[in-house]
Design goal:
This protein is mainly β. It has two domains: 5-161, sav2460 like domains (Lipoxygenase-1, Sandwich); 208-403, Sandwich (Lipoxygenase-1). It is 6% helix and 40% strand. It starts with a strand and ends in an 11-residue tail after the last helix. It holds the Pfam family TerD.
Length: 414
């Protein structure tokens, strides 16, 4: 392998009954991770060294790809192996057709290695390949070894501490050999001794994927009604879709000119309404009304950053409803050809993720998710609704009308 930045693409053909899959990487020293930070996946997308990043998914022509960016030149000397793995969500790999892994030079796009998995049955996690050091150089090996215990089984096999999904209490019987031992009681420290630092939190592998068939989830039921709720919008750069750029009568330009804005309409229980957005520098506030804050204005869609909005759920009783939406500020005429993923990460509870459908209308504003309060419950609903503004009507006013917010709008700029 060239000691440079490589894009590792996990791909398969989608269709009815085909489960979703997620790419992940583990950085090993002596066959084990040094800490949970050596595990890179969708909910821990960047290695502390910056050498490995989870880039995310895109769908085109009936195929789905999930990518990792591995910069071999930045991998720490102590790391001898980078495991390239996949896990199935909602089924087994026997239901995933045409599964492959492909390694490309990230700058040139040339293929350095490819492995088409010959077949699978009940496996729910796979090690498809690995980078390993030999005689001072990096090499790639195809593996194709499966696990029927999912990502949790794969991760624990390499030394990851896992906080698995919550299940109903099992019937009485002998404990499972794989079950974690109960925590040992710690004797109280002497008064003069400061308390020990809390142990590192285990990696949470569970996630909730919202679909058209199952569009809603209760944050209360997930245990996610306190702390910070972080909403992330990540999109594929236009330079990866030259055909789309050609439709606009221009070459496939660098993605810095594509500017999407993550926004939120809010309505509080005291009757106040407003918007949080970069336009007009209305970035909101986290510790006083509206308890919603836009982190900044990312004009790149960069990996692991994108646009981020934070909701302070410690003040959840102040919320009546929050509509998260995105506008296309500049760089394209519509969302057509754009592949975006929305992730809501509660500080407590499982992350919630969904992808936007393919846009087939000349839309410049898309309603993403609606968070509503019933007084005792907070519910997140996937909207993924493309709206087409009438001539002379702003995207903000368009989404306001569609959801009955009833606000007065004036022109603004960034």
């Amino acid at each position: 392998m060239p000691a440079t930045a490589l894009r590792v693409e996990l791909g398969w053909r989608t269709g009815p009954g085909v489960p979703d899959a997620d790419a992940s990487a583990l950085l090993l020293t002596g066959g084990r991770v040094r800490s949970d930070g050596d595990f890179v996946f969708c909910d821990q997308p960047v290695h502390p060294s910056g050498a490995v990043r989870h880039e995310g998914k895109r769908t085109a022509d009936g195929r789905v790809t999930d990518s990792l960016l591995v910069d071999l030149a930045r991998v720490e000397p102590a790391v001898g192996t980078v495991i390239l793995a996949a896990s199935a969500d909602g089924g087994a790999f026997g239901q995933v057709p045409e599964l492959y892994i492909e390694v490309r030079d990230a700058a040139r796009g040339t293929v350095a290695a490819r492995f088409d998995n010959p077949g699978a049955t009940v496996e729910t996690a796979f090690v498809l390949g690995e980078f390993y050091r030999r005689q001072g150089a990096w090499r790639f090996r195809a593996v194709g070894q499966g696990y029927d215990s999912g990502l949790e089984g794969l991760a624990t096999d390499y030394g990851i501490t896992v906080d698995g999904p919550r299940h109903a209490a099992p019937a009485a019987g002998p404990p499972s050999p794989a079950a974690a031992p109960p925590p040992r009681a710690t004797p109280p420290a002497p008064p003069a001794t400061p308390p020990a630092a809390p142990p590192p939190q285990p990696v949470r592998l569970t996630k909730v994927t919202l679909t058209k068939a199952a569009p809603s989830v209760s944050l209360t039921g997930q245990g996610g009604t306190a702390g910070a709720l972080r909403v992330n919008l990540d999109w594929q750069a236009r330079r990866q879709f030259p055909g789309w750029a050609a439709k606009l009568g221009r070459s496939a330009a660098p993605h810095s000119d594509l500017d999407l804005d993550l926004c939120a309409l809010y309505e509080l229980t005291d009757g106040s309404k407003g918007v949080v957005q970069a336009l007009g520098n209305a970035f909101g506030a986290l510790h006083h009304p509206p308890y919603i804050h836009l982190d900044g204005d990312d004009r790149t869609g960069a990996v692991a950053t994108g646009e981020n909005l934070t909701v302070n759920l410690d003040h959840r009783q102040a919320f009546r409803r929050i509509l998260v939406f995105v506008t296309l500020y500049e760089g394209a005429r519509s969302f057509a050809g754009l592949h975006a993923t929305v992730t809501l990460r509660p500080q407590y509870g499982a992350p919630i993720e969904f992808s936007l459908d393919e846009c087939t209308v000349p839309s410049t504003v898309c309603a993403l998710a609606l968070i509503t309060s019933t007084g005792t419950d907070l519910v997140v609903r996937r909207e993924a609704r493309y709206l087409v503004p009438e001539r002379g009507v702003s995207p903000q006013r368009t989404v306001d009308r569609a959801y009955g917010w009833g606000m007065t709008w004036t022109p603004g700029r960034k």
